[in-house]
Design a protein that fits this description.
Blueprint: H1 5-11, E1 14-18, H2 20-28, E2 34-39, H3 52-62, E3 66-71, H4 75-78, H5 93-107, E4 117-120, H6 122-125, H7 130-137, H8 142-146, H9 149-156, H10 163-183, E5 188-192, H11 196-208, E6 215-219, H12 244-252, H13 259-265, H14 271-282, H15 287-303, H16 309-312, E7 316-319, E8 324-326, H17 327-333, H18 340-348, E9 352-354, E10 357-358, E11 365-367, E12 373-377, E13 381-386
Parallel strand pairs: 2-3, 2-5, 3-4, 5-6, 7-13
Antiparallel strand pairs: 1-6, 8-11, 9-10, 9-12, 12-13
Helix pairs in contact: 10-11, 12-15, 13-14
Length: 387
């Protein structure tokens, strides 16, 4: 039996829900909920991992729930260190606002931004005076602040923790109060697992101000293409405005054991559809076929159609008279490399691909038939080779 839209809403990507029973009852009663998600526009780059909560917002939007997108233009100036082991640099208000505008353009690929509320948290925080900050801070103890994993780790290691960093979460928690007051209520807040502490504290502050506590829903994180945490500064990152070519190359080279993970967290497939992908893997369908489907699916989500090499490359064809040839000799034969040193440099830089798959062994034997093999080096060199 396939999952209902509400069951999929409560399970796909979801790590934990508080209060799950309360939220499920309201959803099954078809109550219209106000669903909030906040993001600090600290930089203009958005990767696939950032889009997980937006894919969930899309589900809520399709079920006619009200969406509030909070841009932390004030908190972004301070910077959240929930997932960091050091202080973050200060930004100007102009920088955070400019980043927010860029974010909106990118989020529009997934959600209908014409039908959401947009709230900048400077609206509430700029009106807070110093005495009010003290009042807010009185709701939490130093021990509770140090209970955060990153603060606790840095404190034990003797690393500096600025008072400003202590103020950041208080600013973020106040957002829950400010939004509930502005819109009359807020029923649910979404966030990554790294925001769990902040989301719980927001509920505490709402209760302190006599407001109904919002439910919270957190998500696991999309893993980078190398199996480590995805980072905007790492090659393991897939940006949503990467070219179709770059997206394809990164997705086609995801390790086989991450195929189901990427279908789960990088697409809007339902739980049942992802189970079918897993079954196909179990039934020994070739992983490369599924990775090509994954790449086509994701690229279509963000670029409107799958990647087609013929769209961007006028690829030449070359006939060879040998049934097999080493990769090193082939690179020289087609003119991509002049010397063995050139071959070594190209392979060590992971820039050589056969039928979209990176190959690093110079002695790898390329078997040729009447069906062309696509050989690529870097972004601009490509040739189809056949027997």
């Amino acid at each position: 039996m396939s999952l209902s839209p509400i069951q999929n809403l409560l399970t796909k990507w979801v790590s934990r829900v508080i209060d799950s029973e309360h939220l499920q009852k309201r959803l099954e009663a078809w109550e219209k909920l106000r669903v909030k998600f906040g993001i600090d526009p600290t930089a203009a780059k958005i990767h696939l991992g950032h889009m997980v909560p937006f894919l969930k917002l899309k589900e809520f939007q399709e079920l006619w729930h009200e969406i509030i997108l909070l841009f932390g233009d004030a908190t972004a100036q301070v910077g959240d260190t929930s997932d960091k082991d050091a202080e973050r640099p200060m930004l100007t208000r102009e920088e955070t606002r400019a980043n927010a505008e860029i974010f909106l353009q990118k989020f529009s690929k997934v959600i209908d931004i014409s039908k959401i509320h947009i709230y900048y948290n400077s609206e509430g925080l700029d009106a807070v005076n110093f005495a009010w900050v003290g009042e807010l801070a009185s709701n939490f103890s130093v021990a509770e602040m140090l209970d955060r994993d990153n603060f606790s780790k840095r404190y034990k290691e003797g690393k500096r923790i600025s008072l400003q960093e202590f103020l950041y979460p208080i600013m973020q928690w106040y957002d829950s109060v400010a939004i509930a007051r502005k819109y009359g209520s807020c029923d649910l807040e979404l966030g990554g697992n790294d925001q769990y502490f902040n989301l719980l504290a927001g509920r505490t502050l709402m209760h302190s101000f006599g407001l109904p506590k919002q439910d919270i829903m957190t998500f696991d994180l999309l893993i980078g293409t190398d199996g480590k945490k995805m980072s905007k500064t790492s090659p393991n990152c897939i940006l949503i405005d990467d070219t179709p070519f770059d997206m394809y190359q990164k997705l086609i080279n995801v390790s086989d054991d991450l195929i189901t993970h990427y279908f789960t967290f990088a697409t809007d497939m339902t739980v049942e559809e992802v189970k079918w992908v897993t079954q196909r893997l179990t039934d020994w369908e070739h992983p490369n076929l599924l990775k090509r489907e994954l790449a086509d699916y994701v690229i279509t989500m963000y670029h409107g159609k799958p990647y087609d090499p013929s769209d961007s490359n006028n690829i030449e064809s070359m006939a060879l008279w040998v049934p097999e040839i080493s990769l090193s000799d082939l690179l020289k034969k087609v003119g991509f490399c002049a010397t063995s040193g050139d071959v070594k440099n190209a392979l060590s830089g992971n820039s050589v691909r056969l039928n979209w798959v990176i190959v690093t062994d110079a002695k790898f034997l390329v078997k040729l038939t009447s069906e062309p093999v696509l050989l690529e080096m870097g972004k601009k060199k490509a040739v189809r080779v056949f027997l």
